[in-house]
Design a protein that fits this description.
Order of helices and strands: EHEHEEHEEHEE
Radius of gyration: 13 Å
Largest sheet: 3 strands, antiparallel
Strand order of the largest sheet: 1-5-2
Strand content: 25-35%
Helix content: 25-40%
Structural class: alpha+beta
Low-confidence stretches: none
Shape: globular
Number of strands: 8
Distance between the termini: 12 Å
Mean pLDDT: 82
Number of helices: 4
Number of domains: 1
Length: 117
Amino acid sequence: MPDEIRLTRIPSLAATHAKEAGNFLYHITDAPVASLLLQNGLPLNKRHPLMLTEQNGISAWLAKISEYLHGNASEKAVILRLRRVMVEDALEPDLDHTAEFASNCYLLSGNFNRTIS
């Protein structure tokens, strides 16, 4: 696994209409967590894996996270994108979210105790 993985914040319209959808995975979170991930990199932790989805799971994830963010109107969901090839070796299938979102979802855990930035 490479030591450096480019994590990019993208607008939701760009995420749902990207032509190279199969090349990327997405993580959706609130703005404060997104800022931390962009500054500190992606955590690789088996106990608390980061969930990722393919492009067609973005809408379902946005709908789910909006339930939590609804109480705090100042918070907005942020979509982060990374190249699938950069993390393939550290992915595990997330069967529960795959069923819920009707899209392939993964847990970024690997067997590492380090951070990818």
